[in-house]
Amino acid sequence: MSKKKLNLKLSALLELRSMLRVMEDEVGLSSLTQVEMDVFLAAHALSEVQGDMIASEEIRNHTLTLGIPQASYHRALRSLISLGLLEKADGYKSRHYVVRNDFANS
Fold first, then answer.
1. Where are the domains of the chain?
2. Among 44, 40, 55, 52, residue whose Cα is nearest residue 96
3. Do 33 and 75 meet the contact criterion of CB atoms below 8 Å apart?
């Protein structure tokens, strides 16, 4: 790849990254770690309707979360619950979650 082409691609990447950070800040997610963000976005993507219950296994098998080590994944789930972005689904002690209503498919 030529140096000019590389510079154009890097400039475009910088612009996309900057827009992404602004969007994350606008929706209140800028303080999340990358792992937390990936777990949350996977759960959100799996929520077809507000209030949909999502099994931990579904989130774990999403393309955004496949490469996350198991311990990191579970730490992120706990963190998202404590931040109020995910809630434990009614009737389940664990492994089933709901994306907080004001974040689901808005």
1. 1-31, 32-106
2. 55
3. no
**Cα(48)–Cα(30) distance, rounded to whole angstroms?**
24
pLDDT bucket at 28, cuts 50 / 70 / 90? confident
Which residues make beta-bridge pairs with 86? 99
**C-alpha span between 72 and 65 (Å, rounded):** 10
Tell me the C-alpha distance between 37 and 80, whole Å. 9
Q: Does domain 32-106 have CATH number 2.60.120?
A: no
| Residue 16, strand partner residues | none
Give pLDDT tens digits for 14-23: 999 999 999 9
| C-alpha dist (Å) from residue 37 to 28, 41, 92, 98 | 11, 6, 24, 15
Distance CA 58, CA 1 (A): 39
- pLDDT tens digits for 57-76? 999 999 999 999 999 999 99
